[in-house]
Write a structure and sequence with these properties.
Elements (H helix, E strand, L loop, with lengths): L8 E7 L7 H12 E5 L3 E5 L1 H5 L2 E4 L2 E5 L3 H10 L5 E7 L1
Antiparallel strand pairs: 1-5, 1-6, 2-3, 4-5
Length: 92
Amino acid sequence: MEKEKGKLKHKIILAYSLSSVKQKDKVKFLRELFGYKEKKRKVYYHKGLLDKIKGEKIASNVIMAEFKDLITLSELFNRYNIKPRIIEVWTR
């Protein structure tokens, strides 16, 4: 347990609301963020930004990612005029 004390990771939690966004933009935003699967004859998986940066969804409209990915996430949120609440945290 004592060895793990120095191995804290700097992360961010982003809480956001989609209530002011048009439905078609909500779908585009969520597909970009989380990815989606497409069923034709075969099932195709399209990775989202969270998959690429190894972030995770921790609740409805709440995600957690590495602090270094803040700029990438901010660009996506700004593109859709979504103002997330950003909380810095340290985790193991």
